[in-house]
Design goal:
Blueprint lengths: L2 H19 L5 H10 L2 H5 L22 H6 L21 H14 L4 E3 L10 E4 L4 E9 L3 E11 L3 E10 L7 E9 L3 E9 L13 H9 L24 E5 L3 H24 L7 H18 L3 H8 L1 H12 L11
Antiparallel strand pairs: 1-3, 2-3, 3-4, 4-5, 5-6, 6-7, 7-8
Helix pairs in contact: 1-2, 6-7, 9-10
Length: 333
């Protein structure tokens, strides 16, 4: 690494430290933090001439609170975009509402981050003709580098709640992944997991599967096995993943909802009980980047987003929001 890279990295780390020690953070620093997620792409390439303008603070209007951001697009929604659907139309909205409240009450220095790549705002998109819409929020806290939430509403055709929690890289810990889907109110898919950054659980700062096993044991409907159609379950998935394909909506309310809450609580408990090790941060960020690239290349939702919102928006959404540290494939390779 070149000397000027070390200097820039030190400056970046100083800004990151200030974010966790000050409650009242100028919005300009928030813009800088969003850009730091791409920082490693620059310092890893020894031939790159860094353009500092992309990392300098940008003065903007004061940042909004979580509730202000949530309500900007009418969340939590009470009715579907499809006016013909009325009864329990938004199947997973209670998951969104519970998580928002839980984060507000339990995370330290919770703050809203931009849902943008600088050109496109990903916070909301709709297709009125096809009766579909998607809303997104991105957050960070002292415990988590990034938490993103997504709700996709297309009436009875499709309901989706998705969330991903990346621990601050000073914690060498798994990512919390949540993906809940419903199709035509007949077919349901659920995945909730502490997704490991390393193939060997012992390579994390703390082991965790023993914490999840008693929770999973309570819910017979969530003990399924994932197929290898899109993902390799030996990469970035734990042995205690909650996984289920089911046809009864009762599973959502009676098993999935309480299991989801227990996994979220257990993940935050794990972060708070693990000793921070800032010297591991670059290694952890590198593994989070590998996770993002792996996930972006295999996410089966890309087809849905392309059909509803167009290929360019979908590609940018996958790489610049859902998995914002991912590397894009060049010329199909």
């Amino acid at each position: 690494m070149r000397p000027q890279h070390l200097l820039l990295l030190s400056v970046a780390e100083a800004y990151m430290t200030s974010l966790h020690t000050s409650t009242f953070v100028d919005n300009s620093v928030l813009h800088l933090t969003a850009r730091l997620s791409k920082f490693s792409n620059y310092i890893e390439n020894e031939s790159t001439i860094l353009d500092l303008s992309g990392f300098l603070p940008v003065h903007d209007e004061p940042r909004k609170s979580l509730r202000e951001t949530e309500s900007a697009h009418g969340m939590p929604w009470k009715i579907s975009i499809d006016p013909n659907i009325s009864e329990d139309a938004l199947l997973y909205m209670k998951f969104w509402e519970w998580q928002i409240k839980y984060m507000e009450e339990n995370l330290t220095d919770l703050r809203v981050m931009p849902c943008s790549n600088g050109n496109t705002d990903f916070s909301y998109k709709e297709n009125l003709e096809k009766k579909s819409r998607i809303v997104n929020i991105c957050l960070s806290s002292a415990e988590y580098r990034k938490i993103r939430l997504t709700y996709y509403d297309a009436g009875d055709k499709t309901q989706v709640f998705n969330s991903l929690w990346y621990p601050d890289p000073k914690y060498n810990l798994p990512v919390l992944g949540i993906d809940l889907l419903a199709f035509n109110r007949k077919r349901y898919l659920a995945v909730v997991d502490f997704q490991p950054l390393h193939q060997d659980e012992d390579d994390h700062a703390s082991t965790y599967e023993h914490l999840l096993a008693p929770i999973k044991e309570k819910y017979d409907s969530l003990k399924g096995r994932m197929s290898s159609r899109f993902y390799d379950e030996t990469q970035f998935f734990s042995q205690q993943m909650l996984f289920s394909r089911f046809e009864s909506e009762n599973v959502v309310h009676e098993e999935l909802f309480p299991a989801f809450k227990s996994y979220v609580k257990a993940h935050l408990d794990l972060v708070r009980s693990t000793k921070a090790n800032p010297s591991d941060s670059q290694k952890v960020l590198a593994r989070q980047k590998e996770y993002d690239t792996y996930s972006a290349e295999r996410d089966p939702a890309i087809g849905l987003f392309v059909s509803m919102f167009g290929k360019k928006w979908a590609d940018d959404f996958i790489h610049d929001f859902l998995f914002s540290m991912s590397e894009r494939m060049v010329n199909g390779s």
